[in-house]
Amino acid sequence: MALAAKPSSGDQARGAPHLVFIPSAGMGHIHPFSRFIAALASQGAVDISVVIALPTVSEAEADHFAALFATFPAVRRIDFNLLPLDDATLAGTDPFLLRWESLRRSAHLLGPLIDGAAPRASAIVTDVTLASQVIPVAKNELRLPCHILFISCATMMSFLAYFPTYVDGANTDHLTGDVDVPGIGRLPVDYPPQVLRDPDNLFTKQFIANGREIAEADGIPPQHPARSVVYVAFGNRNAAALEQIREIGAGLEASGCRFLWVVKTTVVDRDDTAELNDVLDDGFLGRVHGRGLVIKEWVDQEAVLGHPAVGLYVSHCGWNSVTESAACGVPMLAWPMTLGDQRLVATVIRSAGFGLWLEHWSWDRESSLVRAAEIAEKVKAVMGDEAISARAKEVGREATKAVAPGGSSHRSMQEFLATLGSLHFYRGLLIVMRVS
């Protein structure tokens, strides 16, 4: 985790606003929180506490939080012991969805926990997955503004906010067809998270509930938002089937490119006990020795993408991955899943012009196995596409300007800090990160 240098405890301004952060679970959700916390803590203009749900889902999460508190000792930790989730109907559910549900069902305990924090909290910043539960606690119990750190693209935010209107108008409780989102246009039915087609799925129920709360938000700030190595990583939540892993390996080998490949075989890192030789073709590691590096450990992705040797990122299109790749000026080959927002995020890569998205590439159907020959072909094609490379560099320059003093992202943070001094109540201010 790349964090700024430690501020001294004396850097905290006397009487500064006290922000209480409530992240959810999953590294893709925790990373943006730690970055935002680090940026604010480095300025020393706010007092910060972070609510940590216990136990953490993965070792990566526990290590990440430990690094955050070690780097910023002035940031307070509030331990939040969740109620047991004893619900037989949820057997077999994704562990991160279960954690979100545990947090949501335990949210009524947050009021006394935050009310007892010292100094008194000025505002709450929480994850969108918890919006429908945390916003009412903040408003009705604590009388505090509640801000949502939205970690996906503006299209996904608009879709989330509009989806309850869509299901109400269609007299349904799930996704049944294309969706015409005001200000965005028509989204084909296979672009949003495909799990929304299942009305009984826990994600669908959470998504609609959070969308209803977000849709009633009072305040939304301005939405500002030489390469020879292929970096391949799909995130913990994108554990690939064995056959697809081997096709990826064969494709990388056939491409002739140097590569760094982070292999994940399970959703939760604690469960990932397989050895590389168990999942890769016999002799693969030997054949690519000196040209390809395959690992299973967590990596500092920002450091990888920032290395001048990296010329392509083959990604599942998590929003963190896309913004990091864009900021580093690295072209992308998009391979999203249908579980979350990834297909909608892939449209950002395509529309911004710094990568390629092949819509027929899928992870969810055995019949849609992507073969090695096509993987090798597309890797070489994007690596050799000068237009995509030039556009990626341009996007990287734009991102650098945005976060620099006076840039759009920097101004947005200053505007956010300015709202903390106001007594006006914002019911659900959305902090949006996006690539223009």
Explained architecture:
Strand 12, helix 13 (342-352) and strand 13 (355-357) form a beta-alpha-beta unit. Helix 5 crosses helix 7 (202-215) and helix 8 (242-255) packs across helix 14. The chain has 16 helices and 14 strands. It has 2 domains: 18-216, 3-Layer(aba) Sandwich (Rossmann fold); 229-398, 3-Layer(aba) Sandwich (Rossmann fold). The longest helix has 18 residues, at 386-403. The protein is globular. Strands 3-2-1-4-5-14 form a 6-stranded parallel β-sheet, with helices on both faces. A 6-stranded parallel β-sheet has the order 10-9-8-11-12-13, with helices on both faces. Strands 6-7 form a two-stranded antiparallel ribbon. By secondary structure, it is α/β, with parallel strands linked by helices. The protein has helices spanning 27-43, 59-71, 95-105, 110-115, 131-142, 154-169, 202-215, 242-255, 276-279, 284-287, 301-305, 319-327, 342-352, 372-383, 386-403, 408-420, and strands at residues 18-22, 47-54, 76-81, 123-127, 146-150, 179-181, 185-187, 229-233, 258-262, 292-295, 310-315, 332-334, 355-357, 429-432. This is Glycosyltransferase. Pfam families: UDPGT. GO terms for molecular function: UDP-glucosyltransferase activity. Belongs to the UDP-glycosyltransferase family. Keywords: Glycosyltransferase, Transferase.
